[in-house]
Design brief:
The structure holds two protein chains of two kinds. Chain A is mainly alpha-helical. Chain A has eight helices and no strands. Helices cover 84% and strands 0% of the residues of chain A. Chain B folds into two domains: 111 residues, Sandwich (Immunoglobulin-like); 190 residues, no CATH class. In chain B, the strands form two sheets. In chain B, strands 2-9-8-4-5 form a five-stranded mixed sheet, with no helix packed on it. Chain B has a four-stranded antiparallel sheet with strand order 1-3-7-6, with no helix packed on it. Chain B is 47% helix and 18% strand. Chain B is an alpha+beta fold. In chain B, α3 packs across α6 and α3 packs parallel to α7. The chains are: A mainly alpha, B alpha+beta.
Amino acid sequence: MTLAGFGAMVRHEFLLEFRHRFASAALLVYVIAVAFIIYLSFASPEPAVWNALFWMVILFSGLQSGTMAFLREFGDAHLFYYQYVHPLSLFLAKILSVWLKLFMLALLAWFVMGVVLGNPIVDVGMFFLAVLLGSLGFAVVFTFLSAVALNANNSGLLLAVLGFPVLLPVLLSVMRLSLVSMAVRDVDATESFLMLVAVVMLLIGLGLILFPYLWKN
Amino acid sequence: MEGFRKHWYKWLSVAILVYVIAAGMLVPLRPGLMKTDAFNIQAGESHELTVQSYNTFYSKAENHRAWLRLHEEFTLLASEVEVVDDRHIKATFDIPEKMPTSERVAMASLIVDTDYDGSMVLPAAVSIIGQEGLEADPGPWLVEPIRDLSHRWTWSFPWRNILEETIRNTYYHVPMWFGMMLIFLLSAFYAVKLLRTGDQRFDSRVYSLNLTGTILGLLGIFTGAIWARYTWGSYWSGDIKQDMAAITLLIFMAYFLLREAMSPGVKRGRVTAVYTLFAFLASIPLLYIIPRMQPSLHPGSGGNPGFGGDDLDNTMKTVFYPAIIGWTLFSYWISNVVYRLSELKRRSLEKNYS
């Protein structure tokens, strides 16, 4: 894997993103619409409920972005990649693009939910960190499993089935950390943070080791 | 003889499981105290407690004694113990007017000792209510310490309040779960082999092991739910380990969906092996880390999910450890049958298409 190959794949990802900008715009609208639905159904939710709803929004945006990571590649595009780039360049570039997209969606969701429902976050820095790491974890799981589901029929539904249980360690630890940032739960912040970092690192490591096998078709 | 050598582990697993089921179901529980007829008794009064017990033979014993015990050190011997029948005794306690410490209400445990059944304890049996305005006087509570307890060894499982007869589930629920973990470990091992060698037989291995592992996991969850119904009050008690176990099973069920969604071949073998490894390793935090960080109803929770100590005495170990080996070997055998079936299917497909 070379840096140039990785750079080229990142550029390609962003071009692809630009070409499919309506799909991303649809995600933006989706986040705003869901935030509004939550606002209309829960007048002023408790911080714990706010937290759960927030991460549910991110979960489904992540599912959608993950689906797009590989599934939007037309026809036999992967044959082309297979010949020209190292699988890890491809994998890392996909993760990076999904992560950035998810992170921005999360910030948008935070902003919109903060405006209409009120902002329960006390420790902004910690919540920011939770969002950053959480969206990385989501991006890794969904990108990886999107490459798995790519091989099967009806892969959209399959991605959800494969992804949700595997995602649970990330979801639980990120929700824990963000509850700490809302001063709702009185647990050790460092421990929750390290737990989240450990889970995300584990998933990244697994992805890096296993992806080349997945791609060697 | 040839067949025996080849199939020794099948015979062994069946022999062990027959032993585990027979011993686990037939060995009686040790005698124990179930309950008394009173909750509160007043200090300064004489009180007759009717004690209901389990698996005891009071009429076969000659010498019956009973104590009330407060805070480990203060004890009071019953002035009279009368045998009603094999399962009931009446113990009369003359409670002193003054409590042994300055607290007004104290929980006392009841200890009964007979020369036939040995000694039995009922923790927090009654609460003793002291009179107001009296000073503490530990004197009368130190006259008769607990001593010369009888012991009679029988092959029996320990009596635990609340658990009672359900303690036998230790030989089914827990070893099934251990067996599932070993089976999944083996399946991850074969998934690595498949990825390294590309040999399609390993795909059938991974499939068969995942199938038996999932079935063991389901049995573990069902036996656990039934156990939870009798000891914790409901089938699903919101216990963190129950939740995590269910999620682990969901992860492995997704494996079968993925496998069904793809057409058979080299590609399916590789993709499902990659998913198996990813899911197996990603489920480690679910099973080993997150449950340690939260309170749980399971024994040994609150930091250390260890199992043993008071929950598993030496008699239980003679059934429990063979049970782990038995369930694991038996599942391995079943997975071999599934493996051969799946290999036959794969080979006949290969033949038809080549």
